Amino acid sequence: MKLRYSPASPYVRQVMIVALEGGLAERIEKLTTSVVPVKANDALQAENPLVKLPSLTTDAGETLYDSPVICEYLDSLHRAPRMFPDPGPARWTALRRQALGDGILDAAILTRYETTVRPKELQWAEWVDGQMRKVRGALDALEDERFDGAFDIGTLTIGCALGYLDFRFPGEDWRKARPKLAAWFAEISRRPSMKATEPRG
Ligand SMILES: N[C@@H](CCC(=O)N[C@@H](CS)C(=O)NCC(=O)O)C(=O)O
What we know:
Elements: E1 2-5, H1 10-21, E2 29-32, H2 42-47, E3 55-57, E4 63-64, H3 67-75, H4 89-116, H5 125-143, H6 153-168, H7 179-188, H8 192-195
Parallel strand pairs: 1-2
Antiparallel strand pairs: 1-3, 3-4
The structure holds glutathione (GSH).
Glutathione binds near residues 9, 11 and 66.
């Protein structure tokens, strides 16, 4: 399998965590790829018309995207404990948490593009405020979430979102008003798959 990869991408990180947890990492060839929304990338576009990371080309030659689809595909290939729970209440909880983690990431990345890619004279403060309101509101909701030791697609996605905030928004100080979430994050960050995929770049 070939994975369009960046060590800085929190969505790629989710895929790599699922791969590591399932013992599949050796089967994945990482093709380091750089993406910026205002720049064309013809090679990536030929595989993924959305021109985003990650995308995964399977051994059968089909290219899958986006990260939730790739994660679920990889999770179907191994016999280790599944990251996607079977149908039932635990699955809905995990998928809701996955959506919340991805939502934090989507808003944080829109903020980052607005502040680092868009020319200064075109930047829109209300846009940034609106996106960061989503991020902070989601973090506030997570402070009261009871994770009960779960490590699955929901909790790993939230872990990747918090890791991304530390990586790209070091001034945010999200831990200050959210001590339970901070303690939970410290605990899951000790997991080998989380450690091996800490963001770089
Ligand atoms: N929903 C997508 C989001 C992927 C995404 O936005 N990836 C970023 C890199 S971290 C990207 O490719 N950005 C380039 C762009 O938006 O054009 C997923 O979960 O895979």
